[in-house]
Specification:
The chain has 124 residues and is mainly alpha-helical. It has a single domain, classed as Winged helix-like DNA-binding domain superfamily/Winged helix DNA-binding domain (Arc Repressor Mutant, subunit A), CATH 1.10.10. Helix content is 67%, strand content 11%. The chain has six helices and three strands. The longest helix is centred in the last third of the chain and has 34 residues, at 90-123. The radius of gyration is 18 Å and the shape is globular. Pfam families: HxlR (PF01638). Residues 15-114 form the HTH hxlR-type domain. Keywords: DNA-binding, Transcription, Transcription regulation. InterPro entries: HTH_HxlR (IPR002577), WH-like_DNA-bd_sf (IPR036388), WH_DNA-bd_sf (IPR036390).
Length: 124
């Protein structure tokens, strides 16, 4: 019953759940979270080198969004030159099993999805 109610709520335009899902499910957020799972503490440049196809601007926006939502912690050290490190918060760590399930599902379905895409492209 509760699950049905939640599913109904996500169709409401200003649903907070819908908003949260849109912020954590974009490709850059997922890649950033998985990168911080692999290397728990990283600086901006390290993140950018590890995710080479992300622009500086997009990485900045992604990190700010994840920080605002309490998924990523930004640690600023008072030194010269400035040092800033990023890591997953307990909330970010709690998200990992759910994202991992999605990744495993995608991996399991990848071949059949690619075949379906190819078949449907040939119909156009």
């Amino acid at each position: 019953m509760e699950a049905d109610k939640l599913k109904d709520e996500i169709f409401i335009q200003n649903c907070p759940i819908r908003n949260i899902l849109s912020r954590i499910s974009d490709k850059w957020s997922i890649l950033t979270i998985f990168t911080l799972e692999q290397i728990p503490v990283m600086r901006f440049g390290e993140l950018q080198r590890t995710i080479p196809d992300i622009s500086q601007k997009m990485l900045t926006v992604t990190l700010r969004t994840l920080e605002q939502d309490g998924i990523v912690k930004r640690q600023v050290y008072a030194q010269i030159p400035p040092k800033v490190e990023y890591s997953l918060t307990p909330r970010g760590l709690s998200l990992l099993p759910h994202l991992n399930s999605l990744i495993y599902w995608a991996k399991d379905q990848m071949d059949s999805i690619m075949k379906d895409r190819k078949r449907n492209e040939s119909k156009d």
